[in-house]
Amino acid sequence: MVSLILRGEPLMSAGQPADIEAVLFDKDGTLSHSEPHLLSLATIRLGHCVRLSGSSHGEVLADLLGRAYGLHPDHHSLNPAGTIAVAARDHNLLSTAVALAQVGHGWPEALVLAEETFRLADLDTPSGSSVAHPTPGLLELIRDLRQRQVTCAVISNDDTAGIQAFLDTHQLSEDFAAIWSADHRPRKPDPGSVQALCQTLGVIPTRCALIGDANSDLRMAHAAGVAVVLGYRGGWRQAVDLEQTSPWLDHWHELRVG
């Protein structure tokens, strides 16, 4: 077991430096600088959806979709708390269908249009694993954790294939002992997902750290009894607005293995 040192101070649990056996990482915006890919995906989905809708309310639909996805008006950045950044694919599809229903489509038609929107967008968008890069300094931290025999795992609302493709692309597969994805149940942000992942790893939450870029990650980890809960803010152009209930870092060099 090791301790984690944030900006020169050990991270504490129950008044003592926490003994950590495993670190659980979110993927998009934490392990992966995914914003360029997700920005492109959101913009392409929006364009296809407005075209397929054929509605006279195209501007209204575009505005609704942009707000749901977290697209900034200039389409140059994303809200880190938008659905495209934090939600699973099926939730993004539902948010698209809701927007279509709000401009007059019946629910069955809205679902069909949303599914076709996603199908076409998938054809037009390269795989995120081929364009998303590890966040700066991550590889050094992962190497240090592995040298200290700390187990690493991914907990994400991406699907298993997407997570595995990212790890494979960047030669990280051997560094991560397990994946808990949108394909698993329960899934984020259910605290049971953390507990189930810990059980898979053979560790208890009070010997784990969890690092994520969303308040839902941090609340989930606290509710699951994780010893060290850290917010990561360096994965997006827009500053991530994290609650003050957990410490945070902007760059991986602020965190070292004690």
Would you kindly provide a written description of the structure presented here, covering whatever features stand out?
This protein is α/β, with parallel strands linked by helices. The protein is 43% helix and 16% strand. It starts with a strand and ends with a strand. The protein has a 6-stranded parallel β-sheet with strand order 9-8-5-10-11-12, with helices on both faces. A 3-stranded antiparallel β-sheet has the order 2-1-13. The chain has a two-stranded antiparallel ribbon with strand order 3-4. It has 2 domains: 4-34 and 132-257, Rossmann fold, CATH 3.40.50.1000; 35-129, no CATH class. The chain contains 10 helices and 13 strands. Helix 8 links the parallel strand 8 and strand 9 (178-180). Helix 1 crosses helix 5 (107-124).
Number of domains: 2
Please provide the count of β strands.
13
Percent helix: 40-55%
Distance between the termini: 10 Å
CATH fold-level topology of the largest domain: Rossmann fold
Beta-strand percentage range: 15-25%
Average pLDDT score: 93
State the fourth-level CATH superfamily of the largest domain: HAD superfamily/HAD-like
User: What is the global morphology?
Assistant: elongated
From the helix content, strand content and strand pairing, which structural class follows?
alpha/beta
Q: Segments where pLDDT lies below 50 for 5+ residues? A: none
Largest sheet: 6 strands, parallel
How do the helices and strands follow one another from N- to C-terminus? EEEEEEHHHHHHEHEHEHEHEEE
CATH architecture of the largest domain: 3-Layer(aba) Sandwich
Within the largest sheet, what's the order of strands? 9-8-5-10-11-12
- Determine and state the CATH class of the largest domain: Alpha Beta
Please tally the helical runs, counting DSSP H or I stretches of 4 or more residues.
Answer: 10
The value of Rg in angstroms is 19 Å
